[in-house]
Design a protein that fits this description.
By secondary structure, the chain is of the alpha+beta class. It is built from five helices and three strands. It is 47% helix and 12% strand. The structure holds zinc ion. The site of zinc ion has 9 residues, from strand 3, helix 2 and helix 3.
């Protein structure tokens, strides 16, 4: 099953960062062994996990990866520490830049109050035009 790693939300990513890892196998079939707060051991791969959370999630229409799977994905570099894929991180940065430019332009043209210097604005706009080609 192919997971939508980009849909990992920030709270789950934060919980994944705090998982107690017993061991990680980063070979051809990556897996992770984790210890729960009650001492129970959970075994996860990028596709499934033995924990109750995952097995409850699995019954939903849009199942999500549990924190153990997310932790494994982070360890393998599939997700960054915020739970985002490289592509989602890029899209988020792009949207942040777009919003910032729009805000600067609005302040400049409507309120006649520059938020940043012309040189800084030109730099951001240049970055924006480069990123646009990568969408
Ligand atoms: Zn799990």
């Amino acid at each position: 099953m192919e997971w939508k790693w980009g849909s990992t939300d920030a709270p789950r990513a934060a919980r994944a960062g705090k998982v107690k890892v017993v061991s990680i196998n980063d070979g051809a079939k990556p897996s992770i062994e984790c210890e729960g707060s009650d001492g129970a051991r959970y075994y996860a791969t990028l596709e499934s996990c033995t924990c109750p959370d995952f097995n409850i999630n699995l019954k939903k229409a849009n199942p999500t990866a549990c924190k153990h799977m997310v932790r494994l994905a982070m360890s393998l570099g599939v997700l960054n520490q915020d739970g985002l894929t490289e592509r989602d991180k890029f899209l988020k940065d792009y949207q942040d830049l777009e919003s910032r430019l729009a805000k600067c332009a609005w302040y400049y043209y409507v309120l006649r109050t520059p938020l940043i210097s012309d040189a800084e604005y030109d730099g951001l706009k240049k970055q924006y035009m480069i990123w646009r080609t990568k969408l």
